[in-house]
Structure formats: C-alpha cells, structure tokens
Amino acid sequence: MSFRVTDAASNARLTRQITTARQRVSVSQEQLASGKRINRPSDDPVGADTIIRLRTTQAQLERFTNNAAAGKETLQLGDDALNQYQEVLDRARVLLTQAATDTIVIEAREPIAIELDGITARLQQLANTKSGDYYVFGGTRIDAPPFDTNGVLNTTATVEVTVQVEPEGTLVATGVAAESFLTDATGSILDTLKAASAAVRGTGNATADSTTIRGTLDRLNTFSTLSSTARTKIGERLNHLEEVTERLSQYNLSVEQIAQRIEGVDFAEAAVNLSATNTALDAILQASAKFGRRSLLDFLG
Amino acid sequence: MGVNFSVFEIGRRALRAGQTGVAVTSHNIANVNTPGYARQSVQLSAAAPDEGHGWLLGAGINIGTGVNIDGIKGNRDQFIATRLQTETATNGRLTAERDALAPVEAAFNEADRGGIGSALKGFFGAFRDLEANPTSTAVRASVVEKGNTLASAFHSTRARLVEIRQQADQDVRAAVNTVNDLAEKVAQLNTQIRIAENHDTNSSDLVDQRAVAINQIAEITGARSTTNADGTVTLTLGDGQALVYSDQVSTLTAEDTPPNGLATLKIDGQPAVINDGQLRGLQNAVSGIGGQIQTLDDLAASIAGRVNTVHSSGADLNGTAGGAFFATPSSGPVTAQNFDVAAAIKTDPRRVVAAANGAGGGDGSIARGVAELLSDNTSVVGAATGSYANVFASLVSSAGAAVKAADDELVTQSAILAQTQAQRDSISGVSLDEEAINLLQYQKAYEAAARFLRVADEMTQTILQLGQ
C-alpha cells in the first residue's frame, strides 16, 4: 500500500514548517537588530569562549594604556625638572666662573653668594619635585623627600617606581633615582654649592676659598654630566612608553578586529537572510491558506 | 425459516452491514483530530450457505446467506507504536534538557556585561590602576568597590544557578506525580481491555487511550512497553523494573537527598533507573548545573585564596602589614555564596595593599601582583588549571555548548519523531478523503440492500396472491 497522507499528518507538517520558518525569521531579525552573530553562548560556544577571552585582553590593554599614560606624565614632569635643573646648574657655573676671577672685588662677591644660595634653594626644590604623592626622583619612598628641610640628601637607596605597561612585558620605571645625579663621589650638589657660596663670601683663607671655587667648577661639570645622563634615561623611558602605547593601540585594534570577525554579523548577509526567511514564511502561509485544506468532502454535493 | 423468507435475512444483514459501515465511518470522521486515534474499519465476511437448503436446489448447490459482521478493528502497527515510544522518549529528554539549561547561559549574563566576567575585569583592573597610583585612597576605594561588585556578581550568579536547579528539581517531582497518575490509568485500561477482549467486544478505543497514556509515560520516563497475550501491556523502566504489570502499579517516588535536598528517584523503595525521557533530561540538567555551581565555588575559592596570599604579603597605606583582602569564612571553604571583601578592608580602604613590605608607599608591586593573577595560567580552580579569565570563559562557553548540543540534537530528533508520527498516521490516521469514499460506498450498499428487500417483498406478495 502506498504511503497514506492523512489530514492530521498534513496539519502536523504544516505546523512544523511554519514554526521552523518563524524561528529562522526571528534569528535573522535578532542578528540584524543586535549587529551580533553571537547573542548568547549557545549561538556559538567556541566563538563565545574566544570573545570572552578577547574582551578580557582588551580590558587589560585599556588598563595598560592608562598606566602608560600616567607613567608618561610623571616622566614628563621629571624631564621638565631636570631641564630646569641643568639651566640652574649652568647659571651656577657662570656665577662661580665670575667668582673664580682673582680680580673680582670683595663687594661683588656677596651678590654672587646670595644668588648661589638662591640657586641652592631652587635645586633643592627641583630635586624634590612631586607628582601627586610622589617625589619624582624619590622612587617608592613617599614619606621623605630626596633632600630634607636642612638640605641633607636621604641616604637610603632609592627604589625606582615601576609599572607594567604590557602583557608579559618588562617593567618601566617612571622616574630616575635621586642619588644618580644629585650626588657625586664627594657629596651632594647642595653641600657642594653651600661650600662654594661660603668660599665666595670668604672664609678668611683666600687660597683655600679659591681652591674650593675652582674645585666646585670642576664638580659642576660632573653634576651636569650626571643630570644629562639622568635626562637621557628619562627620555628613553618616555620613548619606550610612546612605543608601548602605540603597540597597545595596534594590539587593541587587531583584537577588536578578530572579535568583530567572530562576533559581528555581516549586515548585507543578515538582511538578505531576513528577506529570504520572510519570503519563505509568506510562501508557506499562502500555500497552506489556498491549497492545504481541500478534501473530497468539499466536492460532494 | 422458510426458503422465501431467508432472503429477508440476507437483506437484513446487508442493511446492518451498511449501517455499521456508516457508523464506523462517522466515528472515524468524528475522531479525525483525536490524538492517538487509530482509524477503525468494519470486518466483513461472506456468510456460509445454510446446509439445510440443499434439498431444494439439489445436492452440491448451495447459496450463501449474506454478509457477516466479524468485528470492528483498529488499524495499527505494533512495531511503529514501539518506535514512536522510543523516539518520543528521546525527544522528551532533549526538550527537557534544553529548556532546563537555557536559563543557565542567561544567568552568566555575559552579553549585558553585568556578570562575573565584567566584574573580574573590573576588580583586577582596579588593582592595575592601583599599581600606577599606589598612594591613592580614591583608587583604593574603587578597588574595594570593585571587590564588592565581584562578590555580588558571584552571589547573584550562584543564587540564580541554584534557583534554576531548584526549578528543574521541582519539574522532576511534578513529572513523577504525572507518571504515577498515568501508570494508574494504564493499569485500569489494561483491566478493561482484558475484559473486553475476553468478551470479544471492540476494544480499539480503549487501546488508543492506553497508547496515548503509554506515550506520555515514555516521554517522561523512557519506559518501554511489551504486549502480553491477554491484551494487557507491561511497562518497564531502564533496567527492567516494572512500572505497570497488568493491573499492578509500582509507585515512582522522589526522595529528598542530602546535602542539597535534591530528588532521588525510587521505585518501590529501590533506586529507579531512568535512561531516557524528560526525567533523564532533567536529571542531566540538575547534575550539569551542579557542576557549574561547583566550578563557580572553586573559582571564588581560588581567587580569594591567591589574592589573599599576595595581598597579605605587602604593606598597606599605613605602612602596617597587609591582611586578607577577602573574608575567610568561620567554617568551611570560600564559596561563590560566602565570597566577600574582608570587613577590615571595607571599613578602611587604606588597608588595601599596593606596596611590598618595606618597599615604601610609592611601590605598586603587590597591586601589580594581584592584577597579574587574572591572566596567570597557573591558577588551580578545582580540577582545572588556567587563568581565571579562561576558566570563566570555559564555564560560560560550556554552558552554551550544553544548550547548543541539546538544541542541535533536538532538531534532528524532532525530524525523526515527525517522520515516525507520519508513519503511524499513514497506517492509523484518518483520511477524510477515504472516509468520504467509504461513506459513499456504504450508502450505496445500503440503498442497494433496501432496493433488494423491496424486490423480495414484491416476490413474496406475488406468491401470497397465488393462494387468493
């Protein structure tokens, strides 16, 4: 006997076809409305897994970028301070060169000494530059500045503040250590200038004073070299952070692209799908309304 | 009976056959939409010749005595009925599993970024901020806030999972009650069918009702049926335990089982083995959700443990040795339920540690250490090892995969089920076209029989007039 098609079977099939067509329309609509191919993990579990990981990576990259920006600000402050520091050192050198001249009259020495005292105070201020709660050259030690109020250099070794700015990347210091440029083998810049100022005023021993002033001039060269080395370091660190920021941005972009490729919907395709699924649904509805419900009983008088 | 009157008997039988045919046809038409109805047909046979009339026509010449109605038979195929039960059971299992698991992926709330995933990113990200601003009390307050957010994300997600599991458990209990009612019905129908068959009466409608009940039981429990010689059926569960045997019913019970009070199924006090049907699907869902709750608890415990270890190794903003960031429960392990920021930290954010011990307040290495934990691949979470970000991603995607697997299988299964139903319909279903033809056929037969009776009547009149 051939396969009998009964009314109930036809109805069941029609119901199933309409349900399936409506489901397809609904999926297309959701994709088009949300712009996402994956609207819940079950839409594509593997893709969803990747998306969650990628979004975590992106969140981390965002924090790294923030940290790099904060590091750059601190380094910029340090760079400015060192720039001024060098200018002030240069001025001190000019003054001491004048003071070293044997012909200088005693009256002219006092203003030089006063200016040197001012320079000393200014250098102390620059060495103690703060960025928020930090001393830019004080490292992790925030309770004591590099120079205390008496101008005595803190003898504890400075631990540079570091931040991580890249996944698995090396740490970047956001300053330079005070002792790397504020002191030479003999003593601190402040002690040196204070001694020079005293010598300019005259201690009573002209020969010794002259030796002190000349000696200070030599040491100022050393300090200048030390500070430009420190500035170079800061410059390098700034450059590094610039590069890292650029890399982070590139990285973030490529992560976003991958995420979009996995998660995003192709709008043209989704629109075509929506139209196709709608057409299919219409066709099923129309066909069933027109032809689906006939039986022999309709034709018997 | 006289020879001339025997034709009236033939006519009477023919009329009755026609009437019965119309009645059965109308019964079929009436039940065209009744679920489980098997179309019925009249079983007719030619009545044998009456031996006593041989003398009239001569030896060896016999005339039949009309039509016999042997009975009314339902059209059904036992093989397809059994297949339908199996396919219905599998369909029930997959539907129940998908429906019970679908809310789970929503519970993780990943799409809206309000769930554990975004809380994890926020919390460890706040420590990354603290690394760059180790002296800031504002960032510390933010760290504590993000810790609270993470805690509440853990609490609400776990509570939602427990609720979903509870719902599935409730469904198990409700299904058990339905099965017991249906089993009772099958047992009663067994008795009625046995009596009907003993008395040779039409039991087709009862058999249909029983088939519907059996299908419903199969959909819930995956039970198999076997038909016995007396017309009754035996329903058996997974390992052959009888749910219904003749008129005997074994009651299925759902017993509360510690530690969660979830239902364990017993039949007559013995553990019930359910291999298919909605109950299997629900049991799968309950154990699947249980695994997810466990993973969530493991994740919470691991995060609390590792963060506390790193955190307490440093010094806080006051320079004193750091304490635990997350609270340690007074008894038992940290779970997603009791996961919380330590009270001391909540009341004083200055207690949040950023610096290594003795490294000075400007150090952010401990904050960095905590921030790094998010993507540290060596974290041990339960039986898994991997970064917290990955463990959580796997948890969410596996919840999605379970729904997708059930959904995909269900697409195939519903096609198989529809095909099986179509096969059953092909044999048992009512076709209105056929019934219209049958109606015409029986009507015409009835008209012909009536016409024939008129002829017989006229013949009888003719004979009677001879005597006048």
List the helices and strands and how they pair.
The complex is a heterodimer of chains A (301) and B (468).
Chain A lengths: L6 H28 L10 H56 L5 H22 L2 E2 L2 E2 L26 E3 L6 E3 L15 H13 L4 H58 L3 H25 L10
Antiparallel strand pairs in A: 1-2, 3-4
Chain B lengths: L2 H28 L9 E7 L7 H4 L9 E8 L3 H30 L8 H17 L4 H62 L5 H18 L2 E4 L5 E4 L5 E4 L2 E2 L2 E6 L4 E6 L2 E2 L5 H35 L2 E2 L27 H5 L7 E2 L8 H8 L7 E2 L2 E2 L2 H41 L3 H35 L2
Helix pairs in contact in B: 1-11, 3-5, 3-6, 3-7, 3-10, 4-5, 4-9, 4-10, 5-6, 5-7, 6-7, 7-9, 7-10
Structure report:
Chain A is rod-shaped, with a radius of gyration of 39 Å. In chain A, 67% of the residues lie in helices and 3% in strands. Chain A is mainly alpha-helical and 301 residues long. The two termini of chain A are 29 Å apart. Chain A has six helices and four strands. In chain A, a hairpin with a 6-residue loop joins strand 3 and strand 4. The longest helix of chain A is centred in the last third of the chain and has 58 residues. In chain A, the strands form two sheets. Chain A has a two-stranded antiparallel sheet with strand order 1-2. With 468 residues, chain B is an alpha+beta fold. Chain B contains eleven helices and 13 strands. Chain B has a four-stranded antiparallel sheet with strand order 3-4-5-6. Chain B has a three-stranded antiparallel sheet with strand order 7-8-9, with helices on one face. A two-stranded antiparallel ribbon of chain B has the order 1-2. In chain B, helix 3 runs parallel beside helix 6 and helix 6 packs parallel to helix 7. The longest helix of chain B is centred in the middle third of the chain and has 62 residues. Chain B is rod-shaped, with a radius of gyration of 38 Å. Chain B starts with a helix and ends with a helix. The chains are: A mainly alpha (301), B alpha+beta (468).
